[in-house]
Amino acid sequence: MVKEKKGVEKIILKKSLENSKRGKKNRVAGQRFEAKVRQDLEKLGWVVSKWMNTVDYDKNEKTGKLVPSKRKYNPFMKVMTIGTGFPDFICFKRNSEKNSNGEEDSSSRNYEVIGLEVKGNGYLDQIEKGMCFWLLKNKIFSRILIAKKGKTGDIEYIDFLIKYKDNQDLIDNSNPESE
After folding, report:
1. Which of 105, 106, 113, 156 is the most exposed place for a label (fewest CB within 10 A)?
2. How many domains, the chain?
3. Is residue 157 assigned to a domain?
4. Bond into 68 cis (ω within 30)
C-alpha cells in the first residue's frame, strides 16, 4: 500500500514538472509572437505601445469601467510584470488627407487609434469579447484587431467586428454611460 502511494506521488510530480515546462515554453513563445507582431505593425507605419489599462467588465450587466491594469509579481523570477492590460497594444497612425492640389496635407491632425489583441489561435473568450464590444461602444478605439499566427508562420490581422458580427447585439445593448 505504501509503495503504491509513492508511485502515484512520483507520477503526479512528474506531470506537474511537465506542465511547468510546457507553460514556460508557451509563455516565451507568446512573448516572441507579440514582439513579432509589434515589429510588423511598426514596419507598416503604425506607432505601437503597450496598453496599460483594462476594462473592469461585468458580463451579466454588460457594463464596464476603464481602469489601470494591475502589475503582476512573479516571486520565483523576482520580477514585476507590467503591461498586462486588455487589449495588448494601442496603435495609432496619422490619417493622410489630400489637399486641393492632390498632395498629402502635412498639417492633418487626424489619427486612427486602434486596439490590438495578440492571440496565437485568434479566439477570444466570452469576457474578452464583451470587453472589446464595450471599448468600441464607448469609442475608446475606432476598431480592434486580433493578431493570430497564420499557417505558414505569417501574421494574420482579423477585424474584431467582422469576426464577431453575430454577437453584435452585445454592443447595441451595452450602456455607454457606465464609466
Report:
1. 106
2. 1
3. yes
4. no
**86 Cβ partners below 8 Å, 6+ apart?**
51, 54, 55, 69, 117, 128, 131
CA 179/CA 57 separation, integer angstroms: 10
Angle at 114 between CA 127 and CA 50, to 5 degrees: 75
Is residue 178 situated within a structural domain? no
Query: Nine-digit cell at 171?
Result: 454592443
Q: Helix-strand-coil percent breakdown of the chain, rounded to 5?
A: 35, 30, 35
- In sequence order, what E strands does the chain have? 47-50, 53-58, 63-68, 72-74, 79-81, 89-94, 111-118, 143-149, 155-159
CB burial string 48-60: b at 16+ within 10 A, e below: beebeebbebeee
Report residue 57: phi and psi, to 5°: -110, 130
Tens of pLDDT, residues 16-50: 778 888 888 888 888 889 999 999 999 999 999 98
152 is a domain residue: yes
- Which of 158, 81, 91, 80 lies closest to 119, judged by CA? 158
In a domain, 89, yes or no: yes
Domain boundaries, position 67 = 2-173
